[in-house]
Amino acid sequence: MAPLQTHPAATQELSKLLGPERVFTDEATCFAASFDNMRLSFMPEAVIRPKVEEDIGTVLKLANQHKVPVTVRGRGTGNAGASSPIKGGWVIHLDHWDKIEIDPISAMATVQPGAITAHINDLAAPYGLFFPPDPSSLKYCSIGGNIATNAGGLRAAKYGVVRDHVYALEGFLPTGEKVKWGAPLRKFVSGINLRDLWIGSEGTLGIITKATIKLVNKPLARRTFLVACRTDESALEAAAELMGSRINPSVFEFLDTQTVEAAEKQRGSRVFTTEELGGIKETCAVLLVEIDGHPAALADDAVKINLWIKKFGVASRATDNEVEAEKLWDIRRTCSQAMYSLGNAKLNEDIVVPFKSYVALIKYTREVRDKIGLPTPTFGHAADGNFHVHIMYNRDNPEDCKKAEKAIHEVMKKVVELGGAITGEHGIGIAKSPFLSLQHSPAEIGAMIAVKKALDPNNILAPGQIFEPLNVWEHRPVKVTLSWDKH
Ligand SMILES: Cc1cc2nc3c(=O)[nH]c(=O)nc-3n(C[C@H](O)[C@H](O)[C@H](O)COP(=O)(O)OP(=O)(O)OC[C@H]3O[C@@H](n4cnc5c(N)ncnc54)[C@H](O)[C@@H]3O)c2cc1C
Questions:
Q1: Which of 48, 96, 214, 392 could potentially form a cystine with 343 if both were Cys, beta carbons 3.0 to 4.6 Å apart?
Q2: Which residues make Cβ contacts (< 8 Å) with residue 258, sequence separation at least 6?
Q3: Which residue's C-alpha comes closest to atom 15 of ligand 1?
Q4: 222 CA to middle of ligand 1, Å?
């Protein structure tokens, strides 16, 4: 598909201002910047790789003058289509801005937005520090994208999300002026906190060019437990009891029986042998628990966890050895891809429900499965109720597509009814735009739009995202293999 030339004069002018080596209009570069992990392609007119920060001001000022849509792209791993240029225009691509500086005394890192999240940890490790938010995509995604989506991850159970680890941001307003929110200081309460307004705003309110983030001490030890529970319900009741016992797991993951079944089908063997399960032949739900900290404190918590396993588990394994722990993690790491053994397409919604609704949610996903005849495997973060509910279907079967689309609307309605949220970490983007009004009242959405208008009067930055419901099911995903597909 050729790039859409909707603003050729402005693009030519930009090329003169920044230099032609910074402005790409070829089909291959534009196509690569046209989608994220959601894989819905919207072609931009040009991709811009700025050299210096001031280039961003230049781009935005020109964009406002000629009313060219601008979308910022980190590393395109997003699941909500938020970095897709759905109205065309220019994509600012920042993956080449990847400097990382560690300040070990202050336990801070100053980073450029394109830095890969895992690289921050590589550089912090020699100082006994780490950046706790760890989306499963951390080897591929950028810190700029993490901040713009307020990413969560497996360790959010104990350490929180990205918002809990940002001291300061620098960048550009949609109108092209440079701003700094916060400072590289441990305390800062001057003025209205617009730093936190940028965090999670999915590239709609400004462009981040530098961030100072908080690092924390690396735990001295960790212990990992893999536990099989007889049913989904018993696993979720166990989850509530563990959290109520005031143990603070660093990782606490739930995999329902449908997810475990898909994983076992793919690997061709059971997670726990029938013998380990005391003769149980049916698939069991699985909980993955990790605790970290000082070895003495871990030993104390491990005693409590073992008692808890006796009460709720039908089989378990545990280790404090890194290599053995990886083996226990295997099912969690592979379960998402394994679901493709149940259908060639998936709807993946990262909803959140309160503890009191865990069991009701899982029962509902099975009701949906039985009603529409499509698998609804569900797994996710048991410590904060952020579950990934999937509907697996056959993309080439129009009946399946219709059923999946209808069912996901019903799931989202149910989640809100249960006191939950339509997204806990991926954001709204275009993916959840049809559901925004389920979560928020007209007054709430109106207030968000008023903020957007105040900062971006010409609606330059990421137009169409979040607030314009897009019928995403009408768009067919492109067939591409992305680097994270292989892992
Ligand atoms: C295999 C896999 C596993 C994942 N697991 C998780 C998970 O556990 N938790 C989780 O939260 N997410 C997860 N994700 C989603 C994704 O990795 C995160 O949303 C990540 O934060 C996106 O980073 P990115 O650099 O790829 O951003 P992109 O996808 O490029 O962009 C995401 C958003 O950030 C904006 N943005 C990017 N850079 C800037 C900037 N400099 N200034 C302003 N806005 C900017 C974009 O405009 C867009 O709105 C996963 C994705 C994959 C593919």
A1: 392
A2: 342, 369, 375, 376, 377, 378
A3: 78
A4: 28
